[in-house]
Design brief:
2-enoyl-CoA Hydratase, Chain A, domain 1, N-(1-d-carboxylethyl)-l-norvaline Dehydrogenase, domain 2, 3 domains, 6-stranded mixed β-sheet, 24 helices
Length: 602
């Protein structure tokens, strides 16, 4: 029997009721799903023919976490801790069948169950610390009860998920299957129903000495961190051993509630949403061209890491340069990198040979080699100034589909960030005539290289913002001296520091953030950046700006645009080149709009 009007579907198999969660895309545990699950549990308990319950999920994954959009809002019953308590206290055994990524609240839901089965390939984790929080629905109490403090602290302080095989090894799941997840989950539920006196797992508390030793070590490890969440997490894991479960759960919930209200957690939630939002750009859903071979123009040692990434993606590379010596140096660098990767057992001998065979050097002037995609470290010759490439800076690579001379519609700039051998982000710089197909293909290709992208134009986002940052630092150095700047850097985590994070926006910070926010408003007003949060993503992911500070546009939004304008006008008396308010600021104030409105416009 199925109940399609609800985010859960119910199915009977013998004496077991299967509760299927169906809340795409990731089965986030929002209010609607929580309410439906609680109702389904109550129905299962009330139904005489049901002796066991299997908790499973449709789609790509078991719940990948709570609904982050509900954080900071008034809670709506049933809240997740109450749902987990209902599962833990259920009169009939509940077994969770996990696949995909069971993270955060999803894993807490499974931890409340009496048993867990995982599909091979599943990943399990409690990443709340990356949002400035602790697990708030029993994770800090139930996980260490199963695994002990060292393992539980390692998982929760890092926020990194573990594989299904590792979960089995540490006792987090009872079984791992390669197929038939629902059948295995039902079988375990029926086995538990046949043994109603089986006690809940408490293996993690057996060695209290080792447990408390791990607590002391973790407390020393997190003592100097700028965020409060890691310290509170250690406190919660200690409480799991020292307090009865009900009191431990109450302590955990109090810590979670306190942390949700901190500015650091608000900034980290903003950063999480902003990093997901960058993929929403004009052209992203257009047709993607197949890229099997790439011509990379511009050799040398500095270009070798990017060529290595392209080879690793499976594409064939033609590497061109006018200088025979630069080309030789680049080839030598790639050969050495391939040898090192094989030595580290990252690739096999066969894969090393495949990648080397896929690389063909050519001197500029050789006969052109047709390519699905070109990457050029300089503008192609013969482009007139009025071509769409006019908006692209001369010092970033140009990506072109087909031959570079084919026309501007199929060309876009790429600026790899940070400017190092290991970029994590790219700015796709579009011209007025850049086609959606070029954007979609460029995005797909960068994704193959494991590089995410933000869309911008002109010189991009990074350079103007860094110029504003450097200008503000020089100005403050003249007016306040170097000590204020050093203190600011320490507060932002750019040096080891014991300064508490609640001082992060004191002292010199407002003038630095104000200069950067004003530069960001200029970019937005000129149409050179899509949205405020994209600006912050570039600074956080590629330039080392602390995620728990959110970025200058986040800061400006929280400060308020009227207050920001007053501050800028005051500071502009001494440094008008930095602080003269961008025209967009007045436009937003007159229209009653906020930076959050601009972020959510798409």
């Amino acid at each position: 029997m199925a109940e399609h009007s609800s985010p859960v579907e119910l199915e009977r198999r013998g004496h077991t009721l299967l509760i299927w969660m169906a809340n795409p895309p990731v089965n986030a545990l929002g209010h609607g799903l929580r309410l439906a699950l609680m109702t389904a549990l109550e129905q299962a308990v009330a139904e005489d023919g049901v002796t066991a319950i299997a908790l499973l999920a449709r789609g790509q994954t078991f719940p990948a976490g709570a609904d982050i959009s509900e954080f900071g809002k008034p809670p709506r019953a049933p809240i997740l801790p109450d749902l987990c308590a209902a599962i833990a206290d259920c009169a009939k055994p509940v077994v969770a069948g996990l696949h995909g990524t069971a993270l955060g609240g999803g894993l807490e839901l499974a931890l409340a169950a009496q048993g867990r089965v995982a599909l091979e390939g599943a990943r399990l984790g409690l990443p709340e610390v990356t949002l400035g929080l602790v697990p708030g629905a029993g994770g800090t109490q139930r996980l260490p009860a199963i695994t002990g403090a060292p393992v539980a602290l390692g998982m929760m302080l890092s926020g990194k998920p573990v594989s299904a095989a590792k979960a089995l090894q540490i006792g987090l799941v009872d079984q791992v299957v390669t197929e038939g997840l629902a059948e295995a989950t039902v079988a375990l539920a029926e086995a538990l129903a046949a043994d109603p006196h089986k006690a809940a797992r408490q293996d993690g508390f057996k060695d209290s000495k080792a447990y408390l030793s791990a607590i002391r070590a973790a407390r020393e490890q997190v003592a100097q961190q700028p965020l409060p969440a890691p310290r509170r997490l250690v406190d919660c894991v200690e409480a799991a051993l020292l307090l009865p479960l009900a009191q431990g759960l109450a302590f955990e919930r109090a810590c979670f509630t306190d942390l949700v209200a901190t500015p650091e957690a608000a900034a980290l939630r903003y950063a999480f949403a902003a990093e997901r939002r960058i993929a929403k750009m004009p052209g992203a859903r257009a047709r993607v061209r197949v890229v099997k071979n790439v011509t990379f123009v511009g050799a040398g040692v500095d270009a070798a890491p990017l060529v290595m990434r392209i080879l690793a993606s499976g594409a064939e590379v033609f590497w061109a340069d006018a200088s025979k010596s630069r080309l030789a140096d680049g080839l030598e660098a790639v050969a050495e990198a391939l040898e090192a990767a094989e030595t580290r057992q990252e690739i096999s001998e066969a894969e090393k040979q495949r990648r080397w065979a896929a690389l063909t050097p050519k001197l500029d002037g050789d006969e052109d080699v047709p390519a699905d995609l070109w990457i050029l470290s300089q503008r192609p010759e013969g482009q007139a100034p009025e071509e769409p490439l006019l908006l692209l800076p001369t010092d970033v690579p140009v990506m072109a589909l087909g031959r570079p001379a084919a026309g501007g519609a199929m060309q876009l700039g790429i600026s790899l960030l940070p400017d190092s051998a290991d970029p994590v982000l790219a700015e796709i710089l579009v011209g007025k005539s850049t086609s959606p197909e070029a954007i979609a293909t460029g995005l797909a290709f960068l994704r193959r290289l494991e590089i995410r992208a933000v869309q911008s134009a002109g010189q991009g986002i990074s350079k103007p913002l860094l110029r504003a940052f450097q200008g503000a630092i020089r100005h403050l150095n003249r007016t306040q001296g170097p000590q204020g700047i050093e203190d600011l850097f320490r507060r932002w985590g750019w040096e080891a520091s014991s300064i508490p994070s609640d001082a992060a926006f004191g002292g010199a910070a407002p003038q630095v953030l104000g200069a950067m926010a004003n530069a960001g408003l200029e970019l937005l007003g000129q149409g050179l950046a899509l949205r405020p949060s994209d600006i912050d993503v570039v600074l956080m992911k590629a330039q080392g700006f602390p995620r728990w500070a959110g970025g200058p546009m986040f800061w400006a939004g929280r400060r308020g645009l009227l207050v920001l304008r007053d501050d800028l006008r005051k500071w502009a008396e001494d440094a008008p080149e930095l602080y003269t308010p961008a025209p967009l600021l007045d436009d937003l104030i007159r229209g009653g709009l906020t930076l959050a409105d601009m972020d959510n416009a798409d």
